[in-house]
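Quick one: co-fold with NAP.
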Amino acid sequence: MRIDLTGRTALVTGSTQGIGLAIAVGLARAGARVGINGRSADRVDAAIAAVRERVPQAEAVPVVADVTVEVEAEHAISELGRVDVLVNNLGVFGAEDPLEITDDEWRRYFEVNVLAAVRLTRLVLPAMTDQGWGRILNVASDSAIVIPAEMIHYGVSKTALLGVSRGFAKAAAGTGVTVNSVIAGPTHTGGVEDFVYQLVDRDLPWEEAQREFMRRHRPQSLIQRLIEPEEIANMVVYLSSPLASATTGGAVRVDGGYVDSILP
Ligand SMILES: NC(=O)c1ccc[n+]([C@@H]2O[C@H](COP(=O)([O-])OP(=O)(O)OC[C@H]3O[C@@H](n4cnc5c(N)ncnc54)[C@H](OP(=O)(O)O)[C@@H]3O)[C@@H](O)[C@H]2O)c1
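Sure, here it is.
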């Protein structure tokens, strides 16, 4: 299979680090012009340098915007001129006591994890349907299905995102635009490495620490290791491509088998 996104413009929200950065690299490698998004120019510039280090010919465009703010989201889209592939990767997570978390915190999770994606989708969908081609990917989580007691607010926001994807796929029916979710499982990002060392012996080398963490704290994972961000990116790049034209309205798992389900 040859994935070629030459001539397509992609926007990846929250792409200065972690999974978003890996997705931006993957899309750039496939030939897309990629908007790199974060809230500060310094971090966006550093991410663009990181993309170019891995893909020297990359066409990476800075999109400095807090996409949870309506006017900034509008500005981000108009700055790019066109968006053929929208990857709503931005998401925040954190543990909170379910009996202590405030209504404001619940609202913040929905503003960032759900509403920002809905708003950006509304902004790009009309042009995508007019041109008869487009791809919208929403990065969800295993927590959407296996709701953690300490992250009900996060899990439920990701469950909502699955519904948002299905709904917008219906709104785009028959247009050549596809809308899907990618359900990411526990992934090896900077923050997660710190988290692992909070739970296992700090003196263990990374590979052993990871194995110990998975065995004790994530026994449901069938791969028994953290997922690398590039593995999530591979699926997003495939779903962004013309090759995935018959996949829409779905939730595709890259979770290392974490969710105990046969489908999908
Ligand atoms: N890591 C995991 O194990 C895991 C597992 C399942 C699902 N996921 C999902 O995967 C996605 C990415 O996770 P991650 O761990 O890679 O994220 P991360 O490392 O926490 O990175 C978050 C990114 O979002 C940006 N950001 C934060 N608020 C923003 C805003 N208001 N506007 C624009 N950019 C903003 C940050 O950039 P600046 O700080 O530069 O603004 C950064 O680039 C999320 O949706 C997450 O829920 C992650």
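If it helps, Residues 13-20, 37-40, 43, 66-68, 89-91, 93, 139, 141, 184, 186-187, 189, 191-192 surround NAP (CB under 6 Å).
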